[in-house]
Design goal:
This protein has eight helices and 14 strands. Helices cover 27% and strands 27% of the residues. The protein has 216 residues and is an alpha/beta fold. The chain folds into two domains: 2-59 and 169-214, Roll (Urease, subunit C, domain 1); 61-143, no CATH class.
């Protein structure tokens, strides 16, 4: 099924100017076209349409994959009263007696929280099986990392980084080239507002054409 995703502003991510009222056409797992919403709907009148507030941009890459998924514990919501809601590291992590099953559940929750920040790829190496399984099941890409990233691990790929630095892959340019349908929608009117609000303002994340996160 063809699907057109549109927002108030489309940010291609490759140096091309942002396009007010822009849209992307998704065919299965790939983006097959980008352009003005009116042109895409006229060319593909039977395509399903999804409208998002704010801006539509390529998905992000989080450089702290191992640190967030296998060196931190993401509490279950049922544990919030005892453990809180933030990832646990250091002494708090060491105090927990974690089985392989709890580690696996933590990694899956961590991946879901990444998706809620517009993340479509993670960077890192030497993955433990439970962390790699959680990433693969979500359809996220794994990128190689050269050296440790600066700063403290965070779920927000835009913390201390520009949108350009945080992009996993720009959207497909006009023409026959196809690219994986990895992108996200953010409740921000422009790039400056997105930088100020951070990736937590994500309202939707699409990985390989699948809507894997939607803010309720």
């Amino acid at each position: 099924m063809l699907t057109i995703h549109t927002a108030d502003l489309l940010v291609p991510g490759d140096g091309r100017p942002s396009l007010p009222g822009g849209a992307v056409l998704v065919d299965g797992r790939e983006i097959t076209a980008t352009g003005p919403y009116e042109e895409l709907t006229a060319a593909f009148p039977t395509a399903r349409v999804r409208r998002w507030p704010g801006l539509l941009a390529p998905g992000l890459v989080n450089p702290y994959g191992p640190e967030l998924l296998e060196q931190a514990y993401h509490p279950d919501p049922r544990e919030a009263g005892e453990l809180g809601t933030e990832p646990l590291t250091g002494r708090a992590l060491a105090a927990l007696e974690l089985t392989d099953a709890r580690w696996g559940a933590s990694a899956r929750r961590g991946v879901q929280r990444m998706l809620a920040h517009g993340t479509v790829a993670v960077a890192g190496e030497r993955w433990r099986p439970f962390a790699r399984d959680a990433v693969v099941r979500a359809g996220m890409d794994v990128q190689q990392r050269y050296g440790d990233p600066p700063g403290r691990p965070t779920l927000d790929p835009l913390a201390g980084r520009s949108l350009t630095e945080a992009l996993a892959l720009p959207l497909a340019p006009p023409g026959p080239e196809r690219r994986p349908a990895h992108f996200a929608a953010f409740d921000a009117p422009d790039e400056a507002a997105l930088a100020e609000r951070g990736a937590a303002c994500c309202v939707a994340t699409v990985v390989s054409g699948r809507l894997v996160y939607r803010r309720r």
